[in-house]
Amino acid sequence: MTPPVHEHDGAGSRHAHTGAWIAAVLRRRIAAGLLTPGSKLSEQKLSVELGVSRNTLREAFGTLVAESVVVRIPNRGVFVASPGAEDVREIYRVRRVIEPSAVLWGTPAERELEAMDAIVRRAAEARDAGSVPGMADANQALHQAVIALTGSQTLQVLMDRVLARMRLVFHTMSTTPDFHPHYVERNIGLVACLRAGRPEEAARMLRDGLDAAEGEILARIEARAPDPEVRHRAVPVTPIRNK
Fold it and tell me: Which long-range contacts (CB under 8 A, 24 or more apart) does 69-75 make?
């Protein structure tokens, strides 16, 4: 039997075993790619693994349903969502507002720039190795670091939710090997602009990158679906096994 996990930091330990904490744990797993679109979330298994009651788990599921991260299907259970075209549009509406503003008005310290340098180096290594998950991980980390420039805990919590949904969207592009590499280059350029003290240029680059990514993802979704508005409430897809 899998022992109970301890996925909380100091703040989490004060609220461990609450619905909010469980939702945060599951959200982090989704953002890290550990739970993929269509995966069924077993109440029995998770309640034992996380050491919580089923009522607490259902409270967490309710939170994640409201965030469009999971979907509850009557008589079938709770599944990780499979985002559709309108979900993608909504995600990018949020990102276009908060991310360019973060680089435009944030004041990165040297330690924050060094952390970003490390992230884009990791992204370049993943690109050279042909690792799509590695590039996706680094991309998530960089955009999280961008929002951290605001110093706002509220925006960082919002971005955590957005990134969980974004990771699900990335699965749409998992069979498109040329999607991530050119965003690695864009991210390298973004960090270079911030280092050079050119926030306006960085904000423009970021906005252009978000527009381009949204367009590519929507084209992919619409090419695969008979109805371009197919939503995450459709029948769950077969879970992708992590290797």
Answer: 69/26, 69/27, 69/30, 69/161, 69/164, 69/165, 69/168, 70/26, 70/41, 71/232, 71/233, 71/236, 73/233, 73/236
